[in-house]
Amino acid sequence: MKFSFKLSLKYFVLILFGLSLPYVEFIERNLGQLDYVIILDILKLFCLSLFLFCISYFLLNRFFKNTTYQITIFSVLHYIFFKFSVIKNIINKFQISFDGEISIIIIIIIFYFIYKIRYKSNFIHFFNLYIFFYLIFISITLVNNLNNIQYISFNKKESKIKKINFQNLYFNKDQISNIKKNNNNRNIYLVIFDAMTSLEEFNYQNDELDFDLVKTYNKLQNQQLNYIKNSKSVFTTSYLTFSSIFNLNPIVNPESKEYFDRRNFFPNVLLNKKSQDYPILLNTLKAIDYKFKWVGTPWADCVKYNIEFCLSYDEITKKNNNKIYYKLNPNNNHIYNHFLGLTVIKPIIFNFRKLFFEEEKYYQWEFKTNDGVSKFLNSIKYLKNIKNNNYFFYIHHMAPHWPYVYNENCSERDGTSAKSITGNFIGYKKSYICVLKKLDKLMSYINKNDPDAIVVVQGDHGFEFDHTGHLKQSGFSKNNAIKRLTHFNAIKINNECRGFISNNIGSVNAMRLALSCATNQKPELIEEKSYVGFYETQDNFGKVFNLDNLK
C-alpha cells in the first residue's frame, strides 16, 4: 500500500498548534530562567514530537479510515500528556500515597475517554478551538513578558542596579571607593557541604569506618584551612542558614513577625525579578564589582532561579557557555526535571530502571547532580583568567546529606543508600568521608591555581544521629538542637586576618570576615547567635527560638 500525506491545511495548523502548546507554556512560565542552550534542547524535543506525529499519521493512514479525526486527537492527547504533574500535585495535597501511580491511571483513563469519543465532531471542534485560542493567549503573554522582563532588557536592568543604596550594603561609600581602586583584591569561595556535622561529632559517632581525627586536623592545616572547633550554625534549617549567610545577619529572630511560606528566603530571594531587592551580600558584591558565580543543586539551581548567576553564564555574550553548561548539568537537569518532569516520562524511566536493574546506582541521578565540587572542578577550566579577577564562587555540594549516594572513596553507593533517612547512619558516614576527600581535591586546585583566594567551607547545619528532638513533627530539646546546629566550619584566610579567627566565627561572621579580608578592609563582626527554625511539615513552622532560651 502506498503512503500518502493528505491532510488539510486547517487541520495541520491546528495539530501544529496543539503540539506547540506545552513548549510555549513552558517557555512563557520560565522565561527569565531560559537561555539559548536550554531553548535549543526544547526545540529538539519539539522536533521529536513532530517526528512522532508524522510516524503516527502514516501508520494511521495506512490502517484506518477517517484519519483526520484520528490524528487530530494526537495533539489533544499530547497536551494532556504534559498535565501529569498538575494532576499529581492536586492529589499530593490530600497526602495520598502512590500519588504518581494514581496520576498515571487518571491520565490513561482520560486518554481512553478521548479516544472513545474521537468521532464526536463537536468534541473535536471544541478542543481544537480551545487549543487555538489558548495558544494565541499564551503567545501574547509571552511577547508581553519579552518586553517587560529584566532578563531581556539588559540596559534597563543595569541602570536600575547602578542606583546603589548604601544602607543595604556591608561596606560604606568610602570603603567601596577604596576597594574599586585596589588592584590587590582576592577571589572568594563559599563552599557549603549540606548537613555536614563537625569533625568531633563525627568522630564520636563513628565506629565502623576508618577515620583519624588528628590526621584530619593536620590535613586541613596543610591545605591552609583554619578549622574552627565548637562552631555552631546560625539556624537548624537550610533555608534560614543560607538566607542568613546571604543577608550577612540572622535573617529572622524570635521577635520577627511569624512567616507562613518561604517566598522571602533563599533561594527565592535570588530570583532575577527581585534584582532591586537582592540580599546584602549580592548587593555588596555588585557594588564592589565582584562577579557572583553559582554552582547549585537540584534543590537550588541557578538555571531555575537566576541564570545570570550561573558559572556557565557569560556576561559579555549574555548567554550560557554550552561547554560549561553541560558540565554543570550532567543529567540536563532543567530539561529532565522541569520540562519532562511535567509528564509521566520521568517516573516511568525511574521505575523502569528500578525494576530491571538490581543496583540502585542505575537510577540514582543524584550521584552527579548533587556533586557540586566535581561540577565546579570540571567546569572551571573553561573560565579563563580567574586569578585576581574579582570572582565570588558559591558552591553547594549536596552531601553528606541524604540520599547518601557516595561510598568512602566517592564511588557510587548501592545497597540501601537511598532507602530511608531514619537510622541510615552508615550511608551518612560514608558520604561524610567522601566529602572530606572532595574538599581535599578542591583545596588542592585552589591552592595551585588561585593561591591568594579566601575560602569559607561550612555545613549549613549538623546531623542528628538519633533523629529525635528537632526533627519530630512537634517538640524539641536543647540537646538535640545543639546536635543539629553543630557543624563543620573552616576558613582559608590571608595572614593579615588570622588574628580574627576565633570560636565567634560562625555561619555569618565567616562570610563577613571573608568579604573584608578579600578586599583589605577591617572586618565588622557581630555576636554570633544560634536559633531553632522549622520546616513546613513541622508544627512550629514560621516561628524562631533562641538556642540560649531552650531548656
Task: Describe what this molecule looks like in 3D.
This protein has 551 residues and is an alpha/beta fold. The protein is built from 21 helices and ten strands. The strands form three sheets. Strands 2-8-7-1-6-3 form a six-stranded mixed sheet, with helices on both faces. The protein has a two-stranded antiparallel sheet with strand order 4-5. Strands 9-10 form a two-stranded antiparallel sheet. A hairpin with a 4-residue loop joins strand 4 (313-314) and strand 5 (319-320). Helix 1 (9-29) packs parallel to helix 3. The radius of gyration is 26 Å and the shape is elongated. The termini are far apart. Mean pLDDT is 81; it is low at 1-5, 149-166, 359-363 and 468-475.
Q: Which keywords apply here?
A:
2 domains; 10 strands; 551 residues; alpha/beta; Alkaline Phosphatase, subunit A; 6-stranded mixed sheet; disordered N terminus; two-stranded antiparallel ribbon
Q: How far apart lie the N and C ends?
A: 83 Å
Number of strands: 10
> In percent terms, what proportion of residues is strand?
5-15%
> What is the mean predicted local confidence, pLDDT?
81
Please name the fourth-level CATH homologous superfamily of the largest domain.
Alkaline Phosphatase, subunit A
Helix percent reads 40-55%
Reading side by side through the largest sheet, how are the strands ordered? 2-8-7-1-6-3
Low-confidence stretches at least 5 residues in length (pLDDT < 50)? 1-5, 149-166, 359-363, 468-475
Q: What's the CATH class of the largest domain, please?
A: Alpha Beta
Largest sheet, in brief, is:
6 strands, mixed
Inertia-based shape: elongated
Give the CATH topology of the largest domain: Alkaline Phosphatase, subunit A
Structural class: alpha/beta
Specify the CATH architecture of the largest domain. 3-Layer(aba) Sandwich
Helix run count:
21
Query: What's the structural domain tally?
Result: 2
Determine Rg (CA atoms, Å).
26 Å
